[in-house]
Specification:
Bound molecules: adenosine-5'-diphosphate
Helix content: 55-70%
Strand order of the largest sheet: 2-4-5-7-6
Protein name: histidine kinase
Subcellular location: Membrane
Number of strands: 7
Shape: globular
Length: about 280
């Protein structure tokens, strides 16, 4: 009698605790949603005035009337550069909050792998020249030629990875590589950015994809950056139905790989439902 009573009380306590936990989890989710929404709105409001400042400081820096002296032109140029850094930070926060709030749209299209990678080659070639780094694209013969994905997001992911590779590599080479891959049973392509840069300590490797994480707190002072780039890469890759991986050896270099399905998960579901049982 007494024992069953005690047991029942335990059960009631457990049930109350469960309900309490569930409520807390839902509150947290709600708060996180508000945070993302706030950041998205805020970022939008910040961009408008910043854009006017950028246009005006650019006009000053161009000094087309020749009214400014060298020092004033230099000041205007610094103003413009700082404005650009701020804009890219705001854009990163906006992108990340959109991904987190599940508000980032995906526009599926057929993307030619070689065309996309070569466009990035053209874009980053001047930087490679400036930095004295070799920069190449390699597409394995058996790699998928065409992908069904969001081409703009894919370019954004890869250019984030390439920016990092250039930032953290002082000599040697950077390679953009496409290889055949699998995501479980699903045919996929692996797109890698390989560098011969400073590398990441083994203990920090699994944390670099977290927002605001930097492998070395002194790197942020030395290299700048916000620690948002890789969380955006990770969020967007997941959005495209893919996975992101990293291999790195301190002092030797890093390889960041995104594995994307040949066909988007959205349309795969459609094919499965339409196909025979
Ligand atoms: P950010 O570059 O703005 O600091 P990221 O999220 O892009 O932020 O990267 C997080 C951290 O991961 C970097 O601060 C750096 O410590 C490390 N990292 C990223 N890419 C590389 C790379 N190619 N080589 C060495 N370290 C890297």
């Amino acid at each position: 009698e007494e024992k069953t009573g005690a047991l029942r009380m335990r059960q009631d306590e457990l049930e109350a605790a469960r309900i309490d936990l569930e409520r807390k989890a839902s509150d947290l989710e709600q708060a996180s949603h508000y945070k993302s929404e706030f950041l998205a709105n805020m970022s939008h409001e910040l961009r408008t005035p910043l854009n006017s400042m950028l246009i005006l400081s650019k006009m000053l820096a161009d000094n087309s009337d020749g009214n400014l002296d060298a020092e004033q032109v230099e000041s205007a140029r610094i103003m413009h550069d700082s404005g650009r850094s701020l804009l890219s930070l705001i854009n990163d926060i906006l992108d990340l909050s959109k991904v987190e709030a599940g508000k980032m749209g995906v526009a599926l299209e057929t993307v030619n792998v070689s065309t996309s990678l070569n466009a990035l080659l053209q874009r980053f070639r001047p930087l490679a020249g400036e930095r004295g780094l070799k920069f190449t694209v390699r597409i394995e013969p058996d790699a998928t030629r065409e992908l069904e994905t969001d081409g703009a997001r894919l370019a954004q992911i890869l250019s984030n990875l390439l920016s990092n590779a250039f930032k953290f590599t002082h000599e040697g080479e950077i390679e953009l590589l496409a290889e055949k891959a699998q995501l479980g049973a699903v045919p996929a392509v692996a797109l890698s950015v390989r560098d011969t840069g400073i590398g990441i300590p083994a203990g920090k490797l699994d944390r670099v994809f977290q927002a605001f994480e930097q492998a070395d707190s002194s790197t942020s002072r030395r290299y700048g950056g916000t620690g948002l780039g890789l969380s955006i890469v990770s969020g967007m890759t997941t959005l495209l139905g893919g996975q992101v991986k990293v291999r790195s050896e301190e002092g030797k270099g890093s390889t960041f790989t995104i594995v994307l399905p040949e066909r988007s998960p959205q349309s795969q579901t459609a094919t499965t439902t339409a196909g025979p049982p």
